[in-house]
Amino acid sequence: MKGRSVLPARSQVETNRIRYLLGLCSQAERERIESEYFQDEAAFHEMLTAEDELIDAYARGELTNEERPRFEERFLTSLHGRDRVQFARAFAGAVSGSQPFATRLHAVLDSFKTLGGWRDALRIVTITAVIVLVVVLSWLVIERRRMSNELRAEHAEPGKQTDVLRPGADAERTRNAETTAVRSESRPRKVEKAATQRARHLLVAKLKDNPQEIGPEHREVPDRKRLDASIRANPEGALIISQLPIQGRAFANLLTLKPSSPVLFSSRPRSMRGSGANTFTIPRFLTFIKLQLNLETAVQHREYRAVIETADRRQITSVYWAEPLEPERTSIYTPAISTFHLPAGGYALFLTARQPDGSFVRVGEYSFKIIRN
Amino acid sequence: MFQNVYLRKTSSRKEWVLTKAAFDRFLAILDLDRDKAGEKYEYIRLKLLKYFQWYGSDVPDIDADETINRVMRRLEEGANIHNLDRYIYGVAKLVHTESLKLRNRKQDIDEGELSSIAVDAEAAQCQECLERCLGYLSDEDREVIMEYYKHEKSEKVAGRRRLAARLGVSLNTLRVKMHRQRLNLEACVQECLGRYE
User: Fold this and answer.
1) Sign of CA dihedral B135, B139, B145, B148
2) Higher model confidence: residue B90 or residue A260?
């Protein structure tokens, strides 16, 4: 079968190699190439690199309509081939920084094959993607203006700022953690994180063991003096929920968790006495939360991973982030987690830390319950 | 009354079994230095593995080993082979032809399976593992491999030429090095993914 390869081949030789790998060349040409690489080491190495190039081209969506099914027939019918493609997609994302969305889009396009007329599907997907992009950009511009207005209002009130929860240091730590974690998350999450990172002010409402205390009255600007007093009375971390009062809408919340016993959803932590169950009430308008995880010992690791599961062991989400090593610290903060993934119910959070040899060690387990209102 | 029937006894064909002597003889033909012979053996096996993979074999590793076994048997039987690589290629073609007859070669690609490759938790874990494995590289190696693979389409060749010139190596040398680096990364990622299972 003859065909034209659109891969960026430097020479006819390289083009022939690609055609060989795709099974597009004649039997005679095939045997010539095989005989060459069986007897010549350099030719064999060039075949190996040609294979790498072909896999990368597929992962980036650069193959033609003729080449793609041939590639899939030859490379995706084996576990080894699928592993190589998966690696290529991840690697393309790592080197480009924006590829995960593109490769995902291509994969979605692949799935449209079963519908037939995938070109029409491509057109629809492209138009939809453009519309979504416009909406997201508009939202970002609007929210930025709101943040700026809020900042101006806050600066007009000196002395009432961010000393409630060490927000300067916390925000910086959060920014650093989120920056390092952002590469491990998908593109939509990156957009959401960018929005949360712009939030600078945290207002605190104390939530002791009364989740219902966060009622409608606390959704507006809360009484700071009362909240500050409550925090000072319970410095070890009564449950704290924080809001960003950007015209009544909240972007991020900081929830404090204390470690629980290895049994899930236990209301009595094994190591820390006197604290109640980790129950949070999350208003429906809240889009993200962050979790402050109190550790049993001082921070010892630079990188952490938190996996959140439901009561029936279904994984909801996992986040991976870096923490600065500060010997005095006994709590760490997760990146922002979308509340979309957290309807009302019980959850368990498994915290692991990366060791120097690259393995992960269990650091703590937390259980919490979420009430949505 | 029964007639005597003489049934000639037929002996079953002996299956050839790889022996240490046959293996040692093969290595000695590859190279007198046993370590170098071992490297050449692995190289031959890799070539065969790739040949069968590129030919679409269901079991490329089995076919590769079968090919080597047959070559070693012939050598043990005293065959005088002038061009070992060419001979190995010939045996590989034969093994492939026989393999085609034995196995069902038609592979229906499951569209659902293909779409499941795309976005799922394993892809996210793969990304995470890759970032960790990239972290194991030295800063220089990481920068070079990221620079080598970052270009797309028409810019790819020019970008790699510039990189090779900057490093003071030929483009071919750079390609071979990057291929090996990539294989190491792939192996690291697969090992990392194994921890999540």
Assistant:
1) positive
2) B90
